[in-house]
Amino acid sequence: MHPLLQHCVVILAINWVTQGMRGMQLKELSFRLTLELILLLSVFGLLKSLGISVAFAFVVGAFGAHSFSYLFNGQFWVCARYCESYRRNPENLDLFLERVGTRLVATGWIEEAVCIGSQGRGQGTTTMRSDIDLRLLFGAGIVNWLRLNVLMLGLRTKAFLAGIPLDLYGYNDVSALDRFDQSEPLYIIKDAKKLIRARYRTRKLHIRL
Question: What CA–CA distance (Å, rounded) separates 153 from 17?
Fold first, then answer.
C-alpha cells in the first residue's frame, strides 16, 4: 500500500466518502441512505426557497447531509486513531462501554449485543489507541428497524461528542459475526435469546454480569 494512503488525513477523507457502508447490512444501510436523502432534500428545499440556484443548493445539501452522517452517525474517532498524535484514556472507553452496556441490558426490545476485537476479551481497554467494537442485532419488523437505527444514531452522536472511538454496526442476524476471526473471544453484553451462545459454542465467551 502506498504510504500516502496510510496518512491519517487521507484515511479520514476516504472514510468521509465511504463512511463504513461496505460493512453495513441492508437494515442499517437503508436507514442511513434514507436519512441522508431526507437531510439533503431539507437543505436543498430551504436554500432553493431563498433563491439559491438549483445546482448550488443540491451540492450544499448533499455535502451537508453526508458530513452530518460522517460526524454524528459515523466512525470519525475510529479512523482518527491512524493519526500519530491520537491518544485516548482507556478508562474513558471502559466507562463509556459500561454505561452503554447498562442501557442495552435495560432496554427490553434489544435482545443481542456483543463486543468483538480487543474488547471481546472482556478485560477492558488495553491501550490508548484501542476502540470499542460493538455489534447489535436487529429484531424483526419495521418498528425494530427504526428504533435500533435511531438508538445507534444516538450512541454514535454521544461517542463523537465525547471523543470515543466507537466502531458500531447493526446486523440483520447473528451469522454476520462469522466473518470475523473465529479464534478470538466474544464479550457478550446481552444474549436474551441465546443466539450468540448457541452459534459460537466452541469460542471463548465472556458474559457481562
Answer: 18
> Based on the number of CB atoms within 10 Å of its own CB, is 77 exposed (0-12), middle (13-18) or buried (19 or more)?
buried
User: Cell 419488523 identifies what position?
Assistant: 141
User: What would the grid cell of residue 140 be?
Assistant: 424483526
pLDDT tens profile 146-187:
999 999 999 999 999 999 999 999 999 999 999 999 999 999
Q: Specify the pLDDT at position 12.
A: 93
Residue-level pLDDT at 93? 96
Per residue, the 3-state secondary structure of 40-96, as one string, reads HHHHHHHHHHCCCCHHHHHHHHHHHHHHHHHHHCCCHHHHHCCCCCCCCCHHHHHHH
Q: Return phi, psi of residue 135, to 5°.
A: -125, 130
74, 94 Cβ separation under 8 angstroms: no
Measured between alpha carbons, how far is 184 from 203 in angstroms, rounded to an integer?
7
List pLDDT tens digits, range 9-49.
999 999 999 999 989 999 999 999 999 999 999 999 999 99
104: nearest Cα among 191, 163, 194, 177:
191
